[in-house]
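Below is one record:
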Amino acid sequence: MREVTPDWDANPNLDISAFSELPTKDFGVNQHMVINQEFKEALRQILWKFRAPIRYAFAYGSGVFPQSGSAPGSDGCHPSAPAAIKNMQQGKGKMIDFIFGVSYSQHWHSLNLHQHRDHYSGLGSLGSYVVSQVQDQFGAGVYFNPYITVNGTLIKYGVVNLDTLCKDLSNWDTMYLAGRLQKPVKILRDHPQVRLANQMNLLSALRVALLLLPAEFSEFELYSTIAGLSYMGDIRMSLPAEDPQKVKNIVSGQMANFRRLYAPLIENLPNVVFNDPRCTQRDWIDDPETNVRVSQDVDPVKRGNMVSRLPPAFREKLYFQYQARYQIPRAEFEKMKEENSSKEPEAFRRRQGGPFERRIADDSSLKHEVETSIMKTIRWPSTVQSAKGPVTAGFGKSWRYMREKQKKYKGDYKDDGTNVLLDANENAYGPGLALNAEGALQHSTVDGDATGSSKPDIDFLGLNRYPDPHQVELKQLFCNVRNTHVHTQKNITPDNLFVGVGSDEAIDALLRCFCVPGKDKILTCPPTYGMYAVSADVNDVAIVKVPLDAANGFQLQPEKINETLAADESIKMVYICSPGNPTANLIRKEDVQKVLEHPTWNGIVVVDEAYIDFAPEGSSLAEWVAEWPNLVVMQTLSKAFGLAGIRLGVAFTSPPIARLLNSLKAPYNISSPTSAIAQAALSPKNMSVMRNYREQIVTQRDRLLAELPKIPGVGRFLGGYDANFLLVELLDKPDGQASNKIALAAYEAMAEKRGVVVRFRGKELGCEGAVRVTVGTEKEVTKFLYEIRVVLEGLHKGADIGSLREEVNKTEAN
């Protein structure tokens, strides 16, 4: 199967114009996946409907390669698709995704606008120049037109310049398209430059995956690592719009295709081998059930040369990560890079890494640094690419796309009323609002209840007018709720507040206010809320970690935090989650005060109180900002108030910091409907509704605390009991040890076969074998307790989870 000499990638020529200029005759044939001939012809017929010249094209996604565990599409997805497409998709109706590589984007869009004006949003009316500028200058250089019907088939197509595509494949500038081509796709029109660049991309993905893996692993682990690279920094994976099992679903259904892509490359690497006798069998590559073992030589010299051959843009990020880690002076670092780049060609051919690469390859934190570099590569381009979607596709199509993504993420669990979602810490009892019999807000809850002035009526919000940019009345209501005088006799006023789109806007605004990109750092205390790291990556701010004390109930370690702050003046903020997520424990006030009282550090202490209303009364430190000018306390209406859908968060802080935050926000960041609903929720009458729901949640939380320990295979509760969720261990056997394998298997079995979704948290620090369970309604808790018992019993017996239900039902019936 060896196709080329192992040194073709030492100095590839990307200026080729013919396939005959590739290193060998069969070079890159591994990129071509075999699919049904009629289906392939139907896809090609779609391309022929475009008069604008397409130089390179591929189809990808679940509409082309079925994924295991993926949600079914709509039967009416394709208006009148050819029989070959319907047969291939087995009636599931999946939109088919394409990427078109073109020579000149403006010329291409000019021709396409003339033929298919209806494919474009209102942006198309501005002409091909504006369209091409939006494509090329923002995000990853791709222009998407979704929900287009061609040949009776619903498609989404993205347009990219060939030069941009080849550069991303060879250099990993954004990994946006490189990531797509690291997985099996169906190439419909090939191009020699793209084939060469993509072979470099595949080899780079393989090398990075090897740096992330141990000495021995399975094929499934290898391909899952590769498939997961492009999702590491994708902001969509941090939001409830993508299936968290996406990578597993992709690889499980395409083992043979992944093997076709990567087996020839593996056989050409000197430090990696298939060490399974099944590899000697005829046609083993085409066996989807085969999952052979692979081993690699982790010698620093050989791995060091893999580092030196990584894509240039990505390698540069990794080098800068280590410059900061080793605190190498800039001049010395530049000299070191120059020496490495001027190595003799013979040394390069022998795969001998230089001293710096060997040092990196032998570093114990290599996996973390590589993952950080990947996230920095992907985060910003993918975020901007997603943000420009409403402009290029139009708001209607963008909304439809997000709704369908969420539907797949939720797995349609809510449709039949029998499934239970205990994974997102939502309030299962609903909004903390007094509703009438029709489910509408009662007028008495918004008219004259609090400030009694000019609040808009919920039924008529004056939507023809812009909302109040200052939201003074809403801020006053927050002050009324949090001025408890437990921690100070001073009052907070609207001057102390910033309101934003969830707490996430405040997290991001604080980073932009107080941190210089590429220079400053924040300190977090894992295990903790993941959005701090997401926002830091987006803003190119490094993260220093001082873990919570897992042996002491995940409490803060203020002495260690203060030592770290004293040693590193580049740390500008400390993020403290209280009650913690996923730990559910309230952080002691005196520990927060120790950090605030640091004798030399002048940074900002941010306390995230998203779950504070589930903690004992008087726990909130919001009013304490009147005493501490460098304290910020964040809260949200998403949890106890049951208003996750309106995305409303608040930051309490000193007036100077509040002014800075308010100066950064968009003028009308809070819409009139959001403000009106929030004001209604904070009125005295609706506060009583929220407290009533909270008491019911606390009752069910106490029930879980009492009943879960009675189930064989359930271990300790980790953390505390101050939120609307619990963190609990699952054991490898009754009275056994906490097990990630069992916890992940239980999580997957309950979600896929039992209709109960919780959140696996076993990979977080101190959370081995743990799942996080949101406290639901009485009915939901009853179902969860039943299903977790069935699933754990089945896992411990090694029985089939689905058939075990019948056994349990028979036993209970008797």
